[in-house]
């Protein structure tokens, strides 16, 4: 079980469970960092990446693909780190 900080009361009605809120928060932060990383790549133009993208017929497509890939990767990594750092009770009952 997940430690609840000493509170044994049930969740408030109409509110998402704590684990879902934890994952949603970490996922959103990870997605934000991923998009920021993709934009940083486009701004710094490593190995002529931005020049190559801007010379294409549809430059929005590789930008969206790069941003989505980074957002998915960073979001998944952030959610995984959140799950792995949860304090679990040691009892198996």
Please tally the β strands and state the result. 0
Q: What is the 3D form?
A: elongated
Global mean pLDDT: 89
Distance between the termini: 9 Å
Largest sheet: none
The ordered string of helix (H) and strand (E) elements is HHH
> How many helical elements?
3
**What oligomerization state is this entry in?**
single chain
Ranges where pLDDT stays below 50 over 5 or more residues in a row are none
What portion of residues belong to β-strands? under 5%
Helical amount: 55-70%
What is the rounded Rg? 19 Å
Q: Give the structural class.
A: mainly alpha
Protein topology:
Blueprint: H1 18-44, H2 49-54, H3 60-84
Kindly describe this structure.
- The protein is 62% helix and 0% strand.
- With 93 residues, the chain is mainly alpha-helical.
- The protein has a domain at 18-45 and 61-84.
- Helix 1 packs across helix 3 (60-84).
- The mean pLDDT is 89.
Quick structural summary:
The protein is 62% helix and 0% strand. The protein has 93 residues and is mainly alpha-helical.
Keywords, separated by commas or semicolons:
single chain, 93 residues, mainly alpha, 0% strand
């Amino acid at each position: 079980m997940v430690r609840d900080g000493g509170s044994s009361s049930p969740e408030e009605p109409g509110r998402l469970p704590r684990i879902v809120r934890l994952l949603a928060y970490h996922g959103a932060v990870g997605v934000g960092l991923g998009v920021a990383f993709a934009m940083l790549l486009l701004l710094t133009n490593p190995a002529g990446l931005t020049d190559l993208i801007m010379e294409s017929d549809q430059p929005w497509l590789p930008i969206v693909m790069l941003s989505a890939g980074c957002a998915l990767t960073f979001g998944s990594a952030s959610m995984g780190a959140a799950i792995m750092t949860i304090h679990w009770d040691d009892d198996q009952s």
